[in-house]
Q: What sequence folds into this?
């Protein structure tokens, strides 16, 4: 690998130039062989035009959250404080795995028992997030490694949950993008 500062010929994969100590990590990017690879490595999240996030406060009920999921045809809802800071996420998977669907009433009948509980009791706290400036490869990696289907998108300034939630990215969004690239 040739150093861009002093033109010294370093070993491939070197992080620093052996001659002038210039950082070479930015020079060591893998080659792109097609438009899908190029898009995943170079395009930021903003290219997907993330769907605006429909959010709920932590005191909203599970019943309200279920209605929002159905009404908006979405799979997850960011739970935010009044300033818009991300506190957690409530997904379809949370509803399926964390909530028993029914519980027995006092008269022995089966009644929906969790619809009135706050979402804060059942949400996934401090979820993984991405920023508008992150690469699509990072999104795909986070979705895959974490086993997630949805990621909240924060502003360019923060990935720590301190920025307001701007939107949501789903596995479906990534799949649509890749399919569009393949059909060109």
A:
């Amino acid at each position: 690998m040739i150093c861009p500062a002093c033109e010294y010929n370093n070993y491939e994969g070197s992080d620093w130039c052996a001659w002038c100590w210039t950082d070479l990590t930015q020079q060591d990017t893998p080659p792109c062989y097609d438009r899908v690879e190029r898009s995943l490595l170079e395009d930021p999240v903003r290219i997907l035009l993330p769907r605006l996030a429909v959010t709920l406060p932590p005191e909203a009920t599970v019943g309200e959250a279920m209605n929002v999921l159905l009404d908006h045809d979405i799979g997850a809802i960011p739970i935010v404080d009044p300033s818009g800071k991300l506190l957690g996420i409530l997904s379809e998977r949370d509803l399926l795995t964390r909530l028993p669907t029914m519980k027995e009433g006092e008269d022995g009948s089966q009644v929906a028992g969790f619809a009135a509980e706050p979402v804060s009791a059942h949400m996934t706290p401090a979820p993984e997030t991405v920023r508008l400036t992150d690469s699509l490869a990072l999104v795909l990696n986070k979705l895959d490694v974490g086993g997630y289907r949805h990621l909240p998108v924060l502003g360019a300034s923060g990935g720590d949950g301190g920025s307001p939630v701007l939107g949501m990215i789903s596995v479906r969004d990534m799949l649509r993008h890749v399919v569009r690239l393949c059909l060109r």
